[in-house]
Amino acid sequence: MTRPTSEQHPGASNGSNGSNGSNGSNSSNASNVRNVRSDVVIVGGGAAGLSLAHRLMADGSATVTVVEAPDGPLRPPERTWCFWEAGAGDFEEAVSASWSRLRVHAADGSPVSVTPSPFRYRMLRSGPFERLVHARLARSPGAQVVRATADAVRDVGDGAEVDCTLPDGGALTLWARLVFDSRPVPVLPSARTQLLQHFRGWFVRTDTEHFDPAVADLMDFRVPQPRHGLAFGYVLPLAPDRALVEYTQFSRAPLSTRAYEAALGQYTRDVLGIGARTVEAVEQGVIPMTDGRFPRRVGASVFRIGAAGGATRPATGYTFAAVQRQSRAIADGVRRGRAAVPPAHGRRALALDAVLLRALDTGRIDGPAFFTDLFRHTPPERLLRFLDGATTPWEEWGIGLRCPVRPMLRTAVELPFLRGRLRAAPAAVPACEESR
């Protein structure tokens, strides 16, 4: 299960994410701007930062400053975020494509197609999303976007300060009652299991009409499987002759670019049989899949949000929908005078994810068979609610009975006795969220 979003990007540890190009928000970039005060400062203008700014400005109850990295190496390239949703959402204007049918191909080639009504699977590209939110912020007198590199965040007596460097080299200090930081963490939290979801994708155009724009292929296991973990293809048709095609692995280490290219070539040629094609754009990324717990409060007035605040679902990599839940809850708390970042996923969902990650990492379960059977035997609407952590214990019991019971039980019994280990964060994180 893929497509999370993440706030991380290669080289972004000292900066903040933002959109590509200029924006229409109330920007403060002049060299005479040195000190700014607001109710809330949001560090990072990616999915998590802009979603929170959007929620906070909905009723104008707080003044908000968003810090976005200036043009240069700290700004991420265009990314793709995918999620499922019932009905039209807040960002419908920016949705690039959506699908009412989902499909998984088993390792033997047999397809499993589902129609998870009322949900639709949606693709959101970061550029249109950021332009949409910037335009909304520009209409809010209490919002501003500052183009600067965030260097340090610290508590002060009555709030918190963010030290920044402006594009001209000048210093800027932002003060706020509350700071929400979406920058990547340099070290992942202690975890018993950590896998990586790593991928490379091509936006392809074919010479003939090859794709069905009504069906999204979430997992296609008709690819060679690695000795450890699992691999699959991922196809999101944009038109009969256009699609995003990815090769993804769940494993302990990413591949070289050459290895991804070879795998994509084999998949498009030998499995999809698309023939002549043109690669119009490329995406590549890495998403940590860990049972570690991300701290959400790191100071009296400083909080982490998005992937840095634990919004990525450990067993799937999906993040965008959790970011929306988290943002709504934070904004509601701010309006009520309560400062908190609630967990993006419930305890039961995280416990189930920890068992699945360990079972996959130890090889006790066959990953392709597990995910194929999950789609084959679970009602599609219930399956998506399960992946969102919105099912009841009784529904989860029924899903569990269709899983490999013995290896899962063995893993569940073993987990409390395992000790966590610290690991450095991966060097590159997704173009997709969250893509995922």
UniProtKB/TrEMBL annotation:
InterPro entries: FAD/NAD-bd_sf
Taxonomic superkingdom: Bacteria
Gene3D superfamilies the UniProt entry points to: FAD/NAD(P)-binding domain (3.50.50.60)
Biased composition annotated in UniProt, kind: Low complexity: 11-33
Region (Disordered): 1-33
Pfam families cross-referenced by the UniProt entry: Lycopene_cycl
Transmembrane segments: none
SUPFAM superfamilies the UniProt entry points to: FAD/NAD(P)-binding domain
Protein's recorded name: Lycopene cyclase family protein
Organism from which the protein derives: Streptomyces solicavernae
Organism classification: Bacteria, Bacillati, Actinomycetota, Actinomycetes, Kitasatosporales
